[in-house]
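protien #1 (seq + structre)
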Amino acid sequence: MSHDSTTATTTAQEAAARKLSGRRRREIVAVLLFSGGPIFESSIPLSVFGIDRQDAGVPRYRLLVCAGEEGPLRTTGGLELTTPQGLEAISRAGTVVVPAWRSITAPPPEEALDAIRRAHEEGARIVGLCTGAFVLAAAGLLDGRPATTHWMYAPTLAKRYPSVHVDPRELFVDDGDVLTSAGTAAGIDLCLHIVRSDHGNEAAGALARRLVVPPRRTGGQERYLDRSLPEEIGSDPLAEVVAWALEHLHEQFDVETLAARAYMSRRTFDRRFRSLTGSAPLQWLITQRVLQAQRLLETSEYSVDEVAGRCGFRSPVALRGHFRRQLGSSPAAYRAAYRARRPQQGEAPGSAAAKQPPEKPPVEPAPVPGPAEPLVAQSGPGPVPAQSRRAAAAATAHGPVATSVAAVPAGHQGRAQA
């Protein structure tokens, strides 16, 4: 979460603590498991909150493992799980964690949703890891709130629950008494954040050392996102417009052009596009152009100027600005880092040629501030766009990536920063 939201979050957490009902205890953590949930995500809160590590300076929690439905519960690899507790045990928990849900389209059991709603009404902190966010959304706990989930499922979450402010860029979102995380390993980030919120940096750092993970990861999910849109869009009339846009990224066109092709006003197109994809069309289009630039930088010998032209950017300066904002690196530095990690074709990974240090990338001018760019696909030189995007620090250290953006109301971003 961002540091500028720390005060607001602290206030919300204090309010939640004050209204916790008498039968609940903050140190009791209930983990709600369902059949069909993946074992990795399910095991994260069990490991963080269920093992006594007081010898390492980590305060102890009391763990209750609860079945959200009749068992036995089947998980990854055909394993069957039995839990020592049922839904009734949630009534004692100060924190309820839903680590996963088996289907992004199927509704969770109503009995489990009732138990989660009741826990929230009684002041419990409710946590959804990965697809567990769909359970929280089904319970109505994310209405009007910021939230995240695995980037692959974020568009579906936004479409199924339009009142949720879904941000697929974040590793986790802390909205006080309701918290959500991105997929898989991001659940560890959120659990460490909870320990940090409850017991301070020292305790969270000690736990991170025992888990052999960084106490805080920088950046968000954008380095892992791809260009995919939800499968549901395939039957929508906008699918043809989206396909056309992806096939013509090298051409100069803007969102008004896409709206016209869909026979819609710009306002209607924006609303319809966001409801289907969870992303604003302008941000989506910019992201696709950056993705295309990544591919050309990785696979071609085109200069940065040529790449800009072949991706619909109106100038190399515009490409550099958007590329740096989304990936935290210049195009030339990204190409150099990518090639340093991948030996030239025909060279063995351990060969002498492959071990040669890469040439330093040329120094590129920093983007020049200017008025907001109406769209990246215009001809001729012009000012650099001024979309407000957080740079993904050290993105080039993680290999070739792809990104996606969904607009989130101001003040609703929750970010994990070092």
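ok now protien #2
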Amino acid sequence: MNTFLVIDIGTSSMRGILFDIRGKRLFKDQLTYQPEYFKDGGVLQDAQVFYDHCLNINKKCAEYAKSNGYKIVAISMTSQRSSLIPAKNGQPTDKAIMWQDTRVNKLVKVYSAYNEFFVKRSGSRLNAVYLGAKISWLKHNKPDVYDQSDKMFNIPSYLIYHMTGEASTDTTYGSRTNLMNIKTLDWDTELLKILDINRDKLPKIVKPGEVCGKITKDYAKLTGLPEGTPLVSAGGDQQCAAMGEGLLNNDAVSINTGTGGYIIKNIDELPEVLTDHLIYNCSSVPNKYILEIDLLACSSILNWFIKNFYGDLKGNYDQVNEDLKSCYDQNINVTALPYPKGKSVNTNDTRIRAAFTNIGLSTTKPDMLYGLMTSLFVEINDGIDILRSYGPISSVIIGGGLTNSKIMNQMQADAYNLRIHKSPVTESTAIGALISVLVNQGVYPTFEDAYRNVVHGESESYSPNKDNVELFMELNERKQELYSALKGTKAGYYKVDKNQFKEDDKVEKQSHHKITI
């Protein structure tokens, strides 16, 4: 029987899953890892761990396939999008700089005068999460590492090189670098010049869903994978997750409520004018784009509240759900700002922090919880409102940790005033990567056909409660008033000293040609 191997690389683990053509999971192997977090904002990982884990996962999958008479006819890879591995001849020259690393923030501020240009060319203002800023930071702070490295890989391109001998990345990752022209889909000479990055240190760019190489003879000997097996780059994890959840047309929105939040809408063509209220990325569907809005914190907000106000629930969230139900459909006075790491919808305010107001002697813990989660969902709706200017939105597909709560799903429907659907897929990123390789290999003619054949089960649906919609609109007005009152003040900003605002003014006035990072 023909099978397809999906390699899914996350922030804390890597998985290999064998599927048949109907999406049945035949075998799964998963290995974990843990980045190192440092006080200076550095988040690092031994790059060799990614190679070793991928090798061992491929070995186990190949062994299982062989022992059960299965043939692995193609491999599909999806990954977290923006971690940096500098390498020479495929060997890491330093530890991987993970996507969460914040040491690059100062450099991003220095180049802030170029933000409009970056938006026009790359689809996003210079972003601390993206690869381009990390490469520039490496050149300024570790010039010896930069000089001795012949390639700047992300995690999937590093593994693709070892598996196939090809140095390549696809456009979904390219659109998360601030170095690829979002319209020409090639490395942009002027963006490279601004950040002073050598073009020859970057891998070639291919389309997502394309074969980026074939398993080499040496790697086949190491793993047992058949030599010459095609390897497809399916695209970044969020793009594949949206596809796996069924975001295949342009009138729906995908919302992933993980540690951070992601709001995604498909479009066929880029608008003529690009704004900094959105991130313009390439879709996992070739020749299409996605509009993306990222929230700096999402389910992590709930985790913080539970840890500090409920304690260790040992995985049982019944009380949390009951407390939310007790407040549902009530006019709760508590107003909250859901910004423990800053506000990213409609602005880029990384210093504002969360807040509660309207707390009186009658305020209860459930009131505060309900106010906080409501503020998060209406904040997401502010993002959906931005996407509404790019075409009709008739439904929302939800995924991520918060969707395990039925009451929170209903709250989302009320906040967005849209019918929402929870996909039956539990491994949406891997399913998206599977759909990609099945279409590439001609098993199914279209992505829609592949989705219908590999996704089974009924989705859960929630319709907005019209009475509660009005209450949520009022809560959103109060949230916006509170943010307006606190932004730019010491009362609303985190760790503000008396010189911070003056220092930020100086940064804006610095020469952008003579910089010290």
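DSSP finds 18 helices and 23 strands in the chain.
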